[in-house]
Write a structure and sequence with these properties.
Blueprint (H helix, E strand, L loop, with lengths): L2 H16 L4 H4 L7 E8 L3 E2 L3 H11 L4 E4 L6 E2 L4 E8 H31 L6 E3 L9 H10 L13 E3 L1 H7 L2 H11 L6 E5 L2 H10 L3 E5 L3 H11 L4 E5 L7 H5 L5 E3 L2 H4 L6 E9 L1
Parallel strand pairs: 6-11, 7-8, 8-9, 9-10, 10-11
Antiparallel strand pairs: 1-5, 1-12, 2-4, 3-5
Length: 280
């Protein structure tokens, strides 16, 4: 990850939470008071964001000690410790919530991704994310997807061509959209286009699309799309894909399955932080 960017995200979160000061901690705990705290999980899942949690405390106080007990990507069960942090009690209490917010959210994304990737592990298909991420947290969301065993789609509008339905309408059709893009981008950049039916698929293939997104097609239509394409383009299934129908989609033979729910609907992993001892 780009830690300069991550630090900026963390600083903004700390400013949002602390404001002009932690009114409870600063008026209750002496400045020289020291403690040890522990992060532990309360349900089974995949850990992601431990180093992000560490950065929360280090940005508040570079002198804290942070020991990682479970690395990102490790499977954990209820009761297992993820990390321990020791230092000024004020630092631990002030950074607790922000650190947990990142850790719980990212671990939730990684856990959901791991579950879906595991369901189709016997098929030659790749699970990828989308741009449906929490605003401001995309770098963390997409990192968590990778930790969970998934792959990243484009990071933003700047790093990949994806011609969608509104682009097609504005450009005057599939063929015209692809030909116009081909004239204006580097020959090294692949072109992906969204299609809704088999006629559009054939038009995209004829125009030379590199990747074709099958938008909200049912499995029967996807199988026919795979047959028609015959390896001439990479096929990505997207739209309406859930845990329940994921295997059926994978069986169609598509190359990629993109799921916005990896990031926009992941449930936070239940993780707690407790002060377990006081340092003399």
């Amino acid at each position: 990850m780009n830690w300069m960017q991550v630090d900026q995200i963390i600083r903004q979160a700390l400013v949002e939470d602390i404001g002009h000061g932690d009114i409870t901690t600063d008026n209750l705990i002496p400045s020289d008071h020291r403690s040890i705290g522990v992060f532990y999980v309360k349900q089974e899942g995949v850990v992601a964001g431990v180093q992000v949690a560490e950065r929360v405390f280090r940005l508040l106080d570079p002198e804290i000690d942070f020991t990682i007990l479970k690395e990102d990507g490790e499977l954990v069960v209820e009761g297992e410790e993820i990390a321990r942090v020791s230092g000024r009690t004020r630092t631990l209490l002030t950074g607790e919530r922000v650190a947990l917010n990142f850790l719980q959210h990212m671990s939730g994304v990684a856990t959901k991704t791991y579950d879906l990737v595991d369901r189709v592990r016997h098929f030659p298909v790749t699970i990828v994310d989308t741009r449906k991420t929490t605003p401001g947290l995309r770098i963390l969301d997409k990192y968590a997807v990778r930790v969970g065993g998934g792959n990243n789609h484009r990071f933003g509008l700047f790093d990949g061509v994806l011609i969608k339905d509104n682009h097609i309408r504005a450009a005057g059709g599939i063929g015209e959209a692809i030909r116009t893009i081909q004239r204006n981008i580097s020959h090294l950049t692949r072109i992906e286009i969204e299609v809704e039916d088999l006629d559009q698929l054939r038009e995209a293939l004829a125009a030379g699309a590199d990747v074709i997104l099958l938008d909200n097609m049912d499995p029967e239509m996807m199988r026919e799309a795979v047959r028609i394409t015959a390896g001439r383009a990479t096929l990505e299934a997207s739209g309406g894909i859930t845990r329940d129908n994921l295997v059926e989609v994978a069986k169609t033979g598509v190359d990629l399955i993109s799921i916005g729910g990896l990031t926009h609907s992941a449930v936070a992993l239940d993780i707690s932080f407790d002060i377990i001892s006081l340092k003399e």
